[in-house]
Design a protein that fits this description.
seven-stranded antiparallel sheet; about 475 residues; Rossmann fold
């Protein structure tokens, strides 16, 4: 059986709140502002200090939770999750938070990221007699905790986390304690905030703080395990931090523009990516336009640096889901068409610079170049504010498998011809790192750029295929 590594725990968002009345309601608001991180499923587990109450479902946060449902989730503590999976992995059992009952107490888990050694750990655990209920790697962690030789739950969690390889931001909730942890490279973001009356909040992105009335305090550190109880917050390192590797795609594409990651505002980072793009690849044109929504900030940056006016050349229909996850190519093409329209009044007779944040399979760019030409653009120059994506991501962002990545197969010149543009330029890796300008030292200043460079910050663990273990990187 071929294990599909990237089918699980992709592109998720987590939210946790401790010590606040109506925690479920606040988690609902928090998850709503993380909805862009996953639209396929959502869940909340609350605790009133005596028992956990879960509710999970498939669909958007507003579809999964009615007011009546939320009212049944009583308690002062809650964790929640929004989930985005590719075809195959989207079943209700895999929707999080996962909830485990045992004689020693209940445990709920929410995970953002992807574990690279989940399959080999699962194999070991099954050999020891563990029975898995889901295909999610998060369940592996629950089994590790259960089987750990340590006494206290905190030690058991620390022991289990130290055995994981990959990217994770974890929230664990028991009746009276919230545990929070990030992987030793700090691949996925997780921030800590506080409400005015002392409630503690954790979120994948800082954009969720405002809506629940919390103030940002700090980011959870790589290798850190926080234990939150009525007595306060305790911090320990379950593992020494490794070389910092915050995901570059969080800045480029994934996070909301109003979020801050390690002190860098995402909108500002994108604007700087656009400015850098102009420095690296200027071109004469009449208007600059961005692909809504993720590329607007970068397009504004390009326009500002070049002096060419920014115009709204493309409109997005908000009520169509993301094209990216449609299983077949035909459906994806149709998806792009339903999702975007070009404004004839803006682009007719004009030389247009079209800024987008990334090219994965090439579907979006091809379609948009065509839309702009059909609306009368005389030239279309495509500027991608990321380097070519030549390698798959094993850390929870769906950048597709290697054979589907157009930049793994073609040169920029070939892609330019393929998408029918007059010119196509990508940002360099150095340009991308300089533009994002993270406040850290070192060569890549603490950023993961593996999908662009092939230099993965963790070992790529062995995976089982047809009874044999392969190096993950050897598989396409
Ligand atoms: P493609 O059409 O396959 O080349 O995908 C590129 C488009 O998908 C760009 O417009 C991006 O904004 C968007 N995109 C990039 N990365 C992802 C991702 N991991 N998940 C969903 N959409 C993405
Ligand atoms: Fe992010 Fe790319 Fe690294 Fe994956 S490989 S974590 S998408 S930078």
């Amino acid at each position: 059986m071929l294990y599909e590594m990237k089918g699980l725990n992709e592109e998720c968002g987590v939210f946790g709140i401790f010590g606040q009345p109506e925690a479920a309601q606040l988690a609902y608001y928090g998850l709503h502002s993380l909805q862009h991180r996953g639209q396929e499923g959502a869940g909340i587990v609350t605790s009133d200090s005596t028992m956990l109450r879960p509710h999970r479902g498939q669909g958007l946060v507003t579809e999964v939770f009615s007011a009546e449902k939320l009212a049944t989730l009583s308690g002062h503590h809650a964790i929640g999750h929004v989930r985005y999976s590719t075809a195959g992995g989207n079943t209700l059992e895999n929707t999080q938070p996962l909830h485990f009952k045992s004689k020693t107490g209940d445990l709920a888990l929410a995970h953002n990221g992807n574990l690279v050694n989940a399959d080999s750990l699962k194999h070991l655990l099954e050999a020891e007699g563990a029975i898995f209920q889901t295909t999610s790697d998060t369940e592996v962690v629950a089994h590790l905790i259960k089987r750990s030789r340590y006494e206290s739950l905190e030690d058991r969690i620390a022991d289990s986390l130290a055995r994981l390889v990959g990217a994770f931001a974890f929230l664990f909730l028991t009746e009276d304690t919230l545990f929070v942890a990030v992987d030793p490279h700090g691949l996925r973001p997780l921030s800590l905030g506080r409400t005015p009356d002392g409630g503690i909040v954790f979120t994948s992105e800082t954009c969720a703080f405002d809506i629940v009335g919390a103030e940002y305090v700090r980011d959870v550190l790589p290798g850190e395990l926080l234990t939150v109880t009525e007595a306060g917050i305790q911090s320990r390192q379950y593992m020494e931090p490794r070389e910092r590797a915050m995901c570059s795609m969080e800045y480029i594409y994934f996070s909301r523009p109003d979020s801050m990651i390690d002190g860098v505002n995402v909108h500002t980072a994108r604007k700087n990516l656009g400015k850098k793009m102009f420095e690296e690849a200027p071109v004469e044109a009449d208007v600059v336009t961005g692909v809504p929504d993720s590329s607007i900030s970068a397009a504004i940056g390009y326009a500002e640096a070049s002096g060419i006016p920014y115009e709204m050349g493309l409109i997005k229909n908000r009520y169509v889901g993301r094209t990216f996850i449609q299983p077949s190519q035909e459906m994806r093409e149709r998806g792009v068409k339903m999702k975007l329209s070009a404004l004839r009044g803006v682009v007719n007779g004009k030389r247009v610079i079209m800024v987008d944040d990334s090219i994965v399979r090439g579907t979006t760019s091809r379609r948009i170049v065509k839309l702009l030409r059909e609306a009368g653009a005389t030239e279309v120059h495509v500027r991608i504010t990321a380097p070519p994506i030549t390698n798959p991501c094993f850390y929870g962002i769906d950048t597709s498998s290697k054979d589907e990545l157009i930049s793994a197969r073609m040169t920029p010149g070939e892609i330019c011809a393929e998408i029918g543009a007059d010119s196509l330029e990508f940002l360099t890796v150095e340009g991308m790192v300089t533009a994002i300008d993270r406040p850290f030292e070192g060569e890549l200043r603490g950023q993961c750029a593996a999908c662009f460079t092939g230099n993965y910050p963790t070992p790529l663990h062995e995976q089982e295929q047809d009874g044999e273990f392969l190096k993950l990187g050897e598989r396409t």
